[in-house]
Write a structure and sequence with these properties.
Layout: H1 16-30, E1 37-38, H2 50-63, H3 79-93, E2 102-105, H4 108-114, E3 125-129, H5 133-141, E4 148-149, E5 154-155, E6 159-162, E7 180-184, H6 196-209, E8 212-216, E9 242-247, H7 249-252, E10 260-263, H8 277-289, H9 295-304, H10 307-333, E11 338-340, E12 346-350, H11 357-368, E13 370-371, E14 373-374, E15 385-389, H12 394-408
Parallel strand pairs: 1-13, 3-6, 3-7, 7-8, 8-9
Antiparallel strand pairs: 2-10, 4-5, 9-10, 11-12, 12-15, 14-15
The structure holds pyridoxal-5'-phosphate.
Length: about 400
């Protein structure tokens, strides 16, 4: 008799975004002729950079011809793309990695969720709080929590590293032992970035505790300030204790095209592994569970890493960052305290009058017709904040901000 993986029952009701969608649908039912102004989900809206489009079209033409057709590629990714990634790390960040440390994937979400399968079920998980929900949920499914505790506003067994106004929305290394640490910089949802010293403190902790840092740098192309690391491997010692995940979604607009990568250095070891073993395990995992990223998407990825492609991607990032500036200025003009939006496409705003995140969400929906994301959906420390996303057409963002200004003045 088959049984289900009961860990799924432990997931708290409704993933954040379906609940937002449900409330928006109810609103739309009651406001049939009104338009919702969306500053909610982190989904890109602008057209793909033309140089990348051309590269993908060319690849499609090759596939359309029997002589140049190719089927399955390497599960780890095209050699040319892995080489382009390796070269980019050296050129842009001064980080030396081997090509075989890179694993191309269909995006950072899959990797963020799947990497936990490399580690023992009894590993203690720490997450920066608030955090991208995938880190927590995948570890619940992986059996590392006994379930959601309402009074904690979070899951049992997990160590939450509070990122509050007092900490500058940055986490500090845990004061107790943990095994897996999820960090994201630039951060979704707070927009905060960790500097070298702050990251070094985590690397030192991880080496001392033989813990592993899973570092999500999906938004690193949004860093505008000097001296902020784009990769954890810019920190000395990080190869011994870190895995990095990244994506073409946010800088190249590949949210729908789907392409990302992970770096699992051979130097990475834990208490019961040898050098190279975790890299070999991830290789095995990908070869067994994954058949490689789309070859068309990978052609686009190679183009994105070329000088022409990088230039066009920078223009795309700047477009969203102009939106971010407009949002931040607009929200501040109605008296909201705002963070982020400088090195990240997200603005993290404190709710007025101590409203809860969902109360302010409902207020903005009902009164301003604007959709944002309630901060509490990202973890207990997100309560009393909202996340405002700069992904949107400029004209729509302007309309949303104008509506907030009109109704909240
Ligand atoms: N990591 C973070 C922090 C994100 O915010 C997102 C998407 O919003 C992802 C990963 C997912 O990226 P991808 O589209 O590559 O799966």
């Amino acid at each position: 008799m088959a049984t289900i993986n009961t860990n799924y029952n432990l997931l708290s009701a409704g993933y954040l975004f379906p609940e937002i969608a449900r409330r928006c649908n109810v609103w739309q039912e009651h406001n049939k002729n009104q338009t919702l102004l969306r500053l909610g989900i982190g989904n890109t809206t602008e057209a793909l950079p033309p140089y990348l489009v051309e590269a993908m079209k060319k690849k499609l033409d090759l596939l359309a011809n029997r002589e140049t057709y190719s089927g399955y590629g390497d599960e780890q990714g095209d050699t040319a793309l892995r080489k382009a990634l390796k070269d980019m790390y050296q050129r842009e960040y001064g980080v030396s990695l081997e090509m075989t440390d890179f694993f191309v994937s269909d995006g950072a979400k899959s990797d963020a969720a799947n990497l936990q399968s490399l580690f023992g079920q009894d590993n203690i998980v720490a997450v920066a709080d608030p955090a991208y929900p995938v880190y927590v949920d995948s570890n619940v499914v992986g059996g590392r929590s006994h379930g959601f505790i309402e009074s904690k506003g979070g899951y049992s067994d997990f160590v939450y590293l509070p990122c509050t106004a007092q900490t500058g929305f940055l986490p500090s290394p845990p004061s107790t032992h943990v095994d897996l640490i999820y960090l994201c910089s630039p951060n979704n949802p707070t927009g905060a970035v960790m500097n070298k010293q702050q990251l070094k403190a985590f690397v030192d902790y991880a080496i001392k505790e033989k813990a592993v840092i899973i570092f999500d740098s999906a938004y690193c192309q949004y860093i505008s300030e000097e001296g902020i690391p784009h990769s954890i491997f810019e920190i000395e010692g990080a190869k011994k204790c870190s895995i990095e995940i990244n994506s073409f979604s946010k800088n190249a607009g590949f949210t729908g095209v789907r392409l990302g990568w992970s770096i699992v250095p051979k130097e990475l070891v834990v208490s019961n592994s040898k050098e190279g073993q975790i890299n070999a395990m991830w290789n095995r995992r990908q070869c067994t569970f994954f058949n490689g990223a789309s070859n068309i998407a990978q052609a686009g990825g190679i183009a994105a890493l070329s000088p022409e492609g990088q230039k066009e991607c920078d223009v795309l990032v700047q477009y969203y960052m102009d939106n971010a500036r407009m949002i931040r200025e607009g929200l501040e003009s109605v008296g909201l305290k705002c963070f982020g939006g400088i090195n990240s496409p997200y603005i993290w705003a404190r709710t007025p009058n101590n409203m809860t995140s969902w109360e302010f969400f409902d207020y903005l929906l009902d009164v301003c017709h604007v959709v944002v994301t309630p901060g509490s959906g990202f973890g207990p420390s997100g309560e009393h904040y909202i996340r405002v996303s700069s992904y949107g057409h400029k004209e729509n963002v302007m309309q949303a901000i104008a509506s907030i200004k009109e109704h909240m003045k």
